Amino acid sequence: MAYMGGVSFPAHLEPWIRLGAFAGVLLLLAGLELIVPRRPQAVARRNRWPGNLALVAVDTLLVRLLFPLAAVGAALLAEQRGWGLLNLASLPAGIEVALAVIALDLLIYAQHVLFHRVPWLWRVHRVHHADLEFDVTTGLRFHPVEIILSMGIKLAAVILLGVPALAVLIFEVLLNATAMWSHSNIRLPGPADRLIRRLIVTPDMHRTHHSVVPRETHSNFGFNLALWDRWFGTYRAQPEAGHLGMTIGIPEHRSIGDLRILPMLVQPFRRQGEKK
């Protein structure tokens, strides 16, 4: 048990907390997608889910091998050494945790914008956008190179900001859950969607980001808090073709074969038009 600012933190339970939250949210949202779907899906789960979930397994294995301490370990180390802005401040533990979670959410928004703006980063990130449908597993579909780069950025931010380990755990559980939620194929009543998206990104809000239309692809970057898109001018309320008429994905890589794990892994390294 580690202690930070008088708050105990069960570091040894961190992987199990994250795994339990991940499995619970995935099963809940996958079930709701069957009960209240937003869009009919032309590409069946059996054609998409094996590749998407295999990518999750590869990502998880690589992170555990390359970053054995992970972000929570970096936070505990920073606290022990007194590194980072928050470790230099004398704030109540609750305020530190809240500020850190908000700061990390802003960081993820900025990182997401960067991965769209920089061409070589987009080549990696477009694996996420190349899914032919939009559901809970799309929120887990990221190329290993993007996951590694994201972890490096997160570790640097945790150390520079002095993020408490408890805040890291809360943020990572929230990010994972809201990524699945914001990508889920769940139908919300219009008034509920409009109310929720004032604070939290909804599936309809983020689905616009997965439109094949470039000006819609490069909007609505948030995963959790919805305010960043409004504050920084990247918010788009609805897709022009409507949620039932819009096309999901990118112009390239639109075959069923592109949904398999190996084509996804090599996709960023293939030249435009190159045969698989």
UniProtKB/TrEMBL annotation:
TM helices/strands, residue ranges: 16-36, 56-77, 89-110, 155-175
Domain called Fatty acid hydroxylase: residue spans: 98-234
Location, primary (coarse class): membrane
Cross-referenced InterPro entries: Fatty_acid_hydroxylase, Sterol_Desaturase_Related
Pfam families noted in UniProt: FA_hydroxylase
Subcellular location: Membrane
UniProt KW keywords: Membrane, Transmembrane, Transmembrane helix
Keyword Transmembrane: yes
Protein name (Swiss-Prot/TrEMBL): Sterol desaturase family protein
Originating species: Sphingomonas humi
